[in-house]
Amino acid sequence: MKKIFLVMALLIFPAAVFAASQGYLEVTAPGTRLLQLAIAPPVALAGPENSAFSKDIVDALRFDMTLAGPFNVTTSPVTEGTSGIRPGDFDFTPWKAAGADLLIKTGYSQANGNVTLECRLYDVVRSQELAAKRYSGSAKELRRMAHTFSDEIMRVTTGEKGPFTGKIAFVSTRTGNKEIYLMDYDGYNVQRVTHNGSINLNPDFSPSGRELIYTSYKKGNPDLYRRELFTGTEARISARRGINITGAWAPDGNRIALAMSKDGTSQIYVISKDGKELARLTHSNAIDVSPAWSPDGSRLAFVSDRLGKPQVFIMNADGSNVHRLTTSGAYNVSPRWSPKGDRIAYCRQMGNGFQIFTINQDGSGDTQLTTDGSNEHPRWSPDGRYITFSSRRGGADALYVMRADGTGQAMISRGKGNDSHPVWSPRW
Amino acid sequence: MTLQPSRHEGRLGTMVAVSLMVHLTMFVILTRANFFPGLKYPEAPVYYVDVVNLPVASPRAGSPAAAPGPAAPAPPPRTAPREMTLPATSPAKTKPTSTPAKAGPQKPTPETAREFEERLAQLERETEARHEAAAIEELKKRVAAGGRAPAGMPGATGKEAGSDYGSYIQSRLRDAFKTTIASQSKNPEVVVHLTIDRNGKVVRARLERSSGDKVFEDSVMRAIAKAEQNFLPPPRGGGFDQGFIFKPQGVGKK
User: Which CATH number does B163-246 carry?
Assistant: First the structure.
């Protein structure tokens, strides 16, 4: 009887939908257009004008909004003179005539060494204010204030906050050794994290963004370290015989998956954040490295050469149900699961270098994202809309960002030396 | 070797019955949803034509050849034709006119006139009753249709918005949508119900079905705001309600 009701429901539903759609008129248009986003020149709300402030504000907003994706960014398409930034202080007409959909207006003021930045986002077509924020801090925080408003713009226009206030940890040889550094996602405000004069590799953020794990050779063996970013406290959490590399923090913040060779060949293990061994996940005679957690912590992707060449595999978090993910290409490494859970980024050896791909977790939709030079170490932004990676397209290794579909690639490295192994922090 | 009927064969009758019921249900649903408009016979309005010849008020007996002398043509009866067009709400009380036909060879008797009036009143009552029944039946059909049929289709009540103003609004929206459309998903589609007042102003834009793509939905709302600036008022001084499906060009129907 239930089956009969089910069949009848299946028959009735399409008919009901058909009947409901009757009487509606379709409105269509070519769907390739980008939102026209105009950035007005910043104005001094109080005190003298500061061209350096204006440049920082506009540069940061323009970089964020250009990478964002839905926008075509123009700066200063309209000359307004000295109009204000608040509703009623200026006329929308010239902005409408310039074809703008959205308008960013900013103003700054200085007092007692502090800078106040006021930002407003307008819908030009509807002559309506969408967002208004005021930030205060030191002058060197001005770019960060602008990034914060960019996050707000993304929230208002797309429904999801942007990742532009996040940091990127990376390995750089700018001082001669491979040290860990931290910088804004657009390459500004670089801070050095390690000072051990040794080799430091594979940094990864804790889910809170307050701690970092990395492998360091500073005591001779590749051991795993954990560092609190705000206090600088460092602890060696895995110094087992052999390698202790490619650590990946679990989404729960309490466990770390890594590759260790204490029992022979490199295998995948899970340890607590204090270093206690919890489980061995793989039991092969091959080399298993580079574990990457799914966002819900139920599965891991990893690299294994158990079939002869390095390929990406997936297994449950307890080590069961191992199956191969990548079937194309002879050498696929460095997987990383998207925070949205739908795609896995990895790099494949092609010719003399590597290229970045993304693939669905069921192995379908294998898509190449990069073509120029050699590109490695893809890591997702916390919202899953962007990827940072290292590339050798300009000679030395440098860091880049791009959208998840491979468009909008832009270099963010601004120092000397080789930069590699980037990882994007959670939102701070 | 004997062949034993399997259990599956025993269930054949049940399956046939279920299949029959499912197909019957599908046919009824599709027919009710006007899925086969071509199969639905158009309902022609009912017209009543009285083929009964009404009696002449003052019939002339005899033959023209029998008329003595050059008789003048008989004048038409003065009362009966006028009363024939009036509804007979009560038995006719008019008495036979006392004016004799000037050229009539035979004078109608009072009994003939009375009979004529009674027959005429009876016929008019019957005709009126048939018209009333037909009108009531037509109203019942319209109520049963519920006004859900599209304008111009059988079952429509005549209150549906005409295609002209709807097409006009659709055209204005399409022009504006070309200048505002933006999206961050592949095949977004939203349904918005617009209520336009007698002055051509959008007093309500209700999102009936979301696409989950905020960029796209905002671009739809911008298109409505942009198009509204050029809306003409609806015809006949009334309001206008209509649902619109917004989607990028080339996206097929779901």
Answer: 3.30.1150.10
